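Take one record.
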Amino acid sequence: MKEAKVRHTRFNILVWRKLPPCREMVKIITASMDAKLSWREWILMKVHLLSCDPCVNFLKQIKFIRTALSHSDERMEETQQHISLSDAARDRIKNALDSANPAS
């Protein structure tokens, strides 16, 4: 993946001094995926993302992973609908379990 460039502009340096570090922003970005952020957190995240390419890349990666997982989950549900045991297979499993556990 392309490495993010960190631009050292006056705006970015001011943001980096005044806002929480990337480590804290990652927590906020991740939380934004599952729940609505407070106004303060939302503004912090947006301003930080204006100045930090690595965090923008992190957000893109998280969105990509979530999309890929949701698509794979849909496919799993589709394929699992067609999976079933025959009556003979069910009987074999039941008999094997009964013979392995004679106490019940």
